[in-house]
Design goal:
Elements (H helix, E strand, L loop, with lengths): L9 E5 L4 H12 L3 E6 L9 E4 L5 H11 L3 E4 L11 H22 L3 E5 L31 H19 L5 E7 L2 E2 L15 H6 L12 E2 H13 L2 H4 L3 E4 L10 H8 L20 H7 L7 H4 L4 H9 L1
Parallel strand pairs: 1-2, 1-4, 2-3, 4-5, 5-6, 6-9, 7-8
Helix pairs in contact: 1-6, 2-3, 3-4
Length: 313
């Protein structure tokens, strides 16, 4: 275990056994923080202390946070897959979890609370059609959530802003929009959240065009979390950040792909480099000093495609 330094914090990660949570816990632990994970399941590989709990129970959540006494909470727990529950249930669950954790944090005197949102709040993938106002997409771009998952995340961002206005002196709060999360094992052929592999996603751009080819290595997302919790409070309080890789999850030049699958966007994207991302993380870089260190070009295992095709035969 890393020695606890004078700058180390006691950090509670909700959803710490999830695809993103596992890497966040590991990154924070390796940075020397005292990390506690809470989830509905136990993660055998977690380096930190763990609790199994249902955070939808507000009283139980308040009791748990009161006993753990974290200085920081990173709230990742949610129904994380769009359309995996009815819209009403998705919205009620995800916003309810936010209130449960937020209220517990305020009662326990937690100093900082960072909440996971999603870039899906922008509205891409809508069945009635959607077009960006400009590219790359950033936090100032208008939101247009069109399903229960995205709406729950948009509401969470608004609740973060509301909380920052309500409690400016007692709680530093923020939200981040991690792009399509790729867990470390998924670079080596493990199936992603969408039910296919990274090799299949790279081989067939139609599998990721709905997400506009965005992605983030889960470890890079964890490093953003670490950067946020150590950034100046007056800079990050109440802010929302897009957190994505610096390139797109496509093998071809981005302009060539867009000309084929979204030709109406070609002019908007004409200034972008061939390996650019359609999502900007410039605000995260400016406010916290963070930047993604990994890309599919550095992490994708050359044998993952062969493994995938061999397993499919």
């Amino acid at each position: 275990m890393s020695p606890r330094s004078s700058s180390a914090q006691r950090v509670l990660v909700t959803g710490g056994a999830g695809r993103l949570g596992r890497s966040v816990v590991r990154v924070l632990h390796d940075a020397g923080h005292d990390v506690i994970s809470v989830d509905r399941v136990h993660d055998e590989g977690s380096p930190g202390e763990q609790y199994v709990a249902d955070l939808s129970d507000a009283a139980a959540t308040a009791d748990l946070v009161g006993r753990i006494r974290p200085e920081i909470i990173v709230h990742l727990a949610a129904i994380a897959v769009p359309f995996s529950a009815p819209d009403a249930a998705m919205y009620a669950t995800n916003t309810g979890l936010f209130f449960s954790v937020r209220d517990a944090a305020l009662t326990a005197g937690v100093a900082r609370l960072l909440v996971a949102s999603s870039p899906t709040v922008l509205g891409y993938g809508a069945p009635q059609g959607w077009s960006p106002h400009y590219l790359p997409l950033d936090e100032a771009h208008p939101r247009a959530p069109w399903n229960g998952y995205a709406m729950s995340k948009a509401a969470t961002e608004d609740l973060v802003s509301m909380t920052a206005r309500q409690h400016p002196a007692s709680l530093t709060i923020g939200a981040f929009r991690p792009c399509f999360v790729v867990a470390p094992e998924e670079w080596h052929g493990a199936v992603t959240q969408q039910g296919h592999t990274i090799a299949e996603r790279l081989d067939d751009p139609s599998l990721s065009v709905t997400a506009l080819f965005n992605y983030i290595d889960a470890r890079d997302a964890g490093e953003f979390v670490h950067a946020w919790i150590t950034a100046p409070a007056d800079v990050v309080n109440g802010q929302t950040y897009i957190v994505g890789a610096g390139d797109s999850l496509v093998r071809e030049p981005l302009g060539d792909v867009l000309a084929r699958v979204r030709p109406e966007w070609s002019e908007l994207a004409s200034h972008l480099a061939p390996t650019a991302s359609l999502f900007s993380s410039d605000r995260a870089r400016a406010d916290t000093g963070w930047r993604a260190r990994r890309s599919w070009r550095t992490e994708f295992a050359a044998d993952a495609s062969a493994t995938t095709h061999s397993a499919s035969r």
